[in-house]
Automatic annotation (TrEMBL):
One of its GO terms (biological process) is SRP-dependent cotranslational protein targeting to membrane. It comes from Secundilactobacillus similis DSM 23365 = JCM 2765. GO terms for cellular component: cytoplasm; plasma membrane. Its EC number is 3.6.5.4. GTP binds at residues 98-105, 180-184, 244-247. Part of the signal recognition particle protein translocation system, which is composed of SRP and FtsY. This is Signal recognition particle receptor FtsY. Residues 265-278 form the SRP54-type proteins GTP-binding domain.
Amino acid sequence: MTFGERLNHLLANFRHVDESFFDDLEETLIGADVGFEMAMQISEQLRDEVKLQNAKKPKDVQNVVVQKLIEIYDAAGAEENNQLTFAKEGLTVILFVGVNGVGKTTTIGKMANRFKKQGKKVLLAAADTFRAGAIEQLNVWAERDGVDIVKKPEKSDPSAVVFDALKKAKAENYDILFVDTAGRLQNKANLMNELAKMKRVISREVPEAPHEVLLVLDATTGQNALTQAKLFKETTDVTGIVLTKLDGTARGGIVLAIRNELHLPVKYVGLGEQVDDLRPFEPSEFIYGLFKGLIDV
């Protein structure tokens, strides 16, 4: 069910605003992935909403609920920067983190393609030396995109891969270096140390780098994605999020939860399988799409 269908379903049985209405609203919002905290916050704020007390028709109730969602979303994103940060001059280094299976390597491949098309000289570093097949998968993307890749055998030290990639990128005047990393959250201490070591190697070579640490999350995993994000936020300084598999806005509520609970900007979204389905995230366009047909804009 899309976000809109869930709300319509809730309001189809609407009689009047009472406790059971608020219970149902909380359940609906949690089901739509906006996150427990945000569902409670909205429910609390709506209890005091005079307009809601006077709302007799389902359409009025819907307008008040949606306006409140947009209000909270806008307020939480007041200071947010959804643009990617690039080096003022010289090499830009972007580190990608995230658990296996969320589409991290694919995201790098699509992003490399995007920037190559813009005329940038792009280099990939296969620093996920842990997952079987990860290096080969990134290599396939490099060949498809027509960009260069630095790789070593499986189980090599990821920081050594990064070091070699930085040397090459600087010597040969690359514009952007994308670094793929291993996503093993089950061993948090190891992951933390590995990412910290990589960052040390990077900032020794390029003092302001990494310019971004992008956490890749799969929108279809709902609350799991939030939990992963919280853990990654504790292990490393995440600067932004790439949300993959957002092609069905059924799970679009997750964007509200990410902004409200994590205060991390979504910078790019994956909207499908095609190579150009990775796009910069437009917050206002997104929220409009999420509530399309639900509110008199």
